[in-house]
Design goal:
about 100 residues
Length: about 100
C-alpha cells in the first residue's frame, strides 16, 4: 500500500474514532432553554458592545475559513516538495504521522 494511502487511512480512522467518541459521550438528555430578555440583564451600552464584538468575531471566522480553504486547495492541487516530504515521513510512522 502506498504511503499516501496509509496516511489517508490513518486520518480517516482518526476521524471515525473521534466521531464515535463524541457520539458515545454526548449528554443523555437535552435541557430546554429559558427565555431571557437581554435588556433584563444588561444595559443598552453593554448590548451594543456585545453586538460590535459579535460582528468582529464573525469576520474573523469567515476569514479563518477562507484561509483554511485556500491552504487546503494549495496543498491538494500543488503538493509542494516540502509538503510531499512531510507526508512521506508521516507515512513511514503512521501512528505518529496521524
Amino acid at each position: 500500500m502506498p504511503a499516501w494511502a496509509r496516511l489517508g487511512a490513518t486520518a480517516v480512522a482518526a476521524i471515525i474514532v473521534a466521531e464515535a467518541a463524541a457520539w458515545l459521550l454526548r449528554p443523555s438528555g437535552v435541557l430546554d432553554p429559558v427565555a431571557v430578555e437581554p435588556a433584563s440583564i444588561l444595559s443598552g451600552e453593554e448590548i451594543a458592545r456585545a453586538e460590535d464584538y459579535r460582528s468582529g468575531q464573525r469576520l474573523l471566522f469567515v476569514g479563518g475559513v477562507a484561509a483554511q480553504g485556500v491552504l487546503l486547495v494549495l496543498l491538494i492541487g500543488g503538493r509542494p516538495a516540502a509538503v510531499r516530504r512531510v507526508l512521506e515521513r508521516a507515512g513511514e510512522r503512521p501512528l505518529l504521522g496521524g
